[in-house]
Please model this.
Amino acid sequence: MTLTSTPEGLAALREMVTEEMAALQPPPKLSVAQWADRERRLSSEASAEPGRWYTDRAPYLRGIVDAISDPTEREVVVMSAS
Model:
């Protein structure tokens, strides 16, 4: 008797295939600011505010990082204080 010869075995196989196919999906299309809000973490050694990054804490950066990742932009010039 094989795994797929029972209804439970078929259900388990279907679930396994579904999970494997989900792993093959491309990542979502995100801007750099969206990705940072979702994935970036600041270490306690290198940051005054460790933990999850929120672009809203430094909203002026949103335009800069999104311009850097925009394929239609040829040059990005940033003028800022230290």
